[in-house]
Protein: N5-carboxyaminoimidazole ribonucleotide synthase
Amino acid sequence: MNYFSSDFKLGILGGGQLGKMLLYNTRKFDIYTCVLDNSNEAPSRLACNKFVKGDLMDFDTVYNFGKQVDVLTIEIENVNVQALEKLEKEGVKVYPSAKTLRGIQNKATQKLFYLDHNLPTAPFSRFAYLSEIEDAIDNGGLSLPFVWKAAQFGYDGNGVKIVRQLSDLNDLPKGECIAEQLIPFKNELAVIVARSSRGETKTYPVVEMEFHPEANQVEYVICPARISPEVAKKAQEVALKTSEAYNHIGLLAVELFQTEDDQILINEVAPRPHNSGHQTIEASYTSQFEQHIRAILGLPLGNTQNKVGGIMVNLVGAENHTGPVKYENIETIMAMEGVTPHIYGKKETRPFRKMGHVTIVNENLDTARQIAEEVKNSIKVISQ
Amino acid sequence: MNYFSSDFKLGILGGGQLGKMLLYNTRKFDIYTCVLDNSNEAPSRLACNKFVKGDLMDFDTVYNFGKQVDVLTIEIENVNVQALEKLEKEGVKVYPSAKTLRGIQNKATQKLFYLDHNLPTAPFSRFAYLSEIEDAIDNGGLSLPFVWKAAQFGYDGNGVKIVRQLSDLNDLPKGECIAEQLIPFKNELAVIVARSSRGETKTYPVVEMEFHPEANQVEYVICPARISPEVAKKAQEVALKTSEAYNHIGLLAVELFQTEDDQILINEVAPRPHNSGHQTIEASYTSQFEQHIRAILGLPLGNTQNKVGGIMVNLVGAENHTGPVKYENIETIMAMEGVTPHIYGKKETRPFRKMGHVTIVNENLDTARQIAEEVKNSIKVISQ
Structure:
């Protein structure tokens, strides 16, 4: 098929920030794009050829949207999978496939998939209701502490909690969940794998999440991770194996733990461009967004290596600030070497809301890390 | 002024490819943009917040458009300058200024400006009508060969001709023109200077145009130029001095000749992002488009150095092909290391029409140059 012609149409389910960054690259290749999103204010609305407002979880809406396009992809997992199944049967190319998406949407199913495919992950138990966890503890089938994860609709730290005592269960959603063994780890890593509809695969360098020593929040995504080549290789192999097990087409972001004894365990996966790959825009030969497009269109994959070291800092709303947003000291950080802010354009800030990200690139990763800290200490996302 | 808020509006005169690439960066910074263009099919229409169709040469159209924005810039020189003058008087920030634009729009005025400011350029004579050239030759005031240049509205090689014999004058436009001494040169170079509304200046590395040995057409833009550090320094100094002489704000692309005896002469300038800077998207720490926005908004300028070596190849329509465009072997070039095609989305090709460009980046510039040649030999822009 000739993608570089007006006959071809690419559909994207979801019109958020990831979709927006994806669209920069469709413009570069002059690919005709249609976007479906729940909100008329979706950031992707600018830069797509055709925007449709509609419910991403509604069968008819997704089906009717998908019928208009040749290739359909997502930038958010919570979409109607039944509609995708029907579209696939009727010849629309859907990447990720309905089957993969269904297997990933539910974290219990995701974990069972790893077990079935001999992919390393922390031991866990699955529960249909939260109340069953209490029963399991009572009868000795589960012991504290453990990590509770909602099976569905968790995002950005929502839907995950370390349970150290019974009372920690009090405020949790009552539905399907898993209890995962709490495994001490040295590093939280991630690897993005690109796999094209022609079967070509490439992995990006391993990235490392550096946590704030007290707040236990990811402060920096560092690429490449400061780990041994052996551990990096193992992490890339696990990620590649995961992508192949899913027979996945497009990007698969694989979040990993490096345990104290250098085992690599899969935490979770996302079948799309991912927060852990934002630094690829400035640091890599091929950004994750361009790569996703190359992969789902069956174009040759681009070079995944870094041109320079890259660090990503999330821009989140400051505590105690709710209201119309103001970016304090943004000019200060723009004066620093190799610093690019990405402002998502949300009008209102609130504590910890993700409002943008900043990339810092430098030939020397240690220098980039120092500048990243200056960035973090300078910019504030506050209310006006 | 807070640019990162919905109160601020940036206006762009012209909605072509340069505007489109400029808009990617306004989106990254979430800057509200308005675009005026003659055509409803303008590539910038997607990705701006507000699109206005209207004649860029019409006083009222440009004035009314400009009144709606805080900062006004251009992506094409041929706009109504009287309207810009009135807008400036009424407080709109116009970059480039009406005065600079007026001085640049007319090539005779441009050349006189260089003389007045001791900026090096090839000797020339100015003529109100083409017929005066013949008179000058007749009375010995001008001798063949020389370079004829139309004073106004030349573009892409149009409006420039080497006159070796009287009959070469036959088909030329009859209006205002200059006759420039034909000076043999070793290299055609270009330097982009960024100068911000706060007076900060930065120059990009010197680029080199490599010509086809027979066709006398620019084949490759190579960054950095393969010239001595002394010549590079001299070229950057001339470019910087030119930008300062114009008191210019924004990007100024300065096209230069390196003569046989290593003099640097100004050929012409463009007060905006420029074809000679397209490789900055992939090769530089800061793309020329982001830099133009930083400059006109008075934000700190970004690093102009290369991350890696960059080469740009123009994608022009093949000879003997007119009609709906097809990009032959685009997948072949996308499989090559560090190659990014930029397709402009024009529906129809014709011989030598500029249909896009391809960037090739590599740590090693010689390798990039080899790959660029493979690109050039592979891709064909033909009709379907």
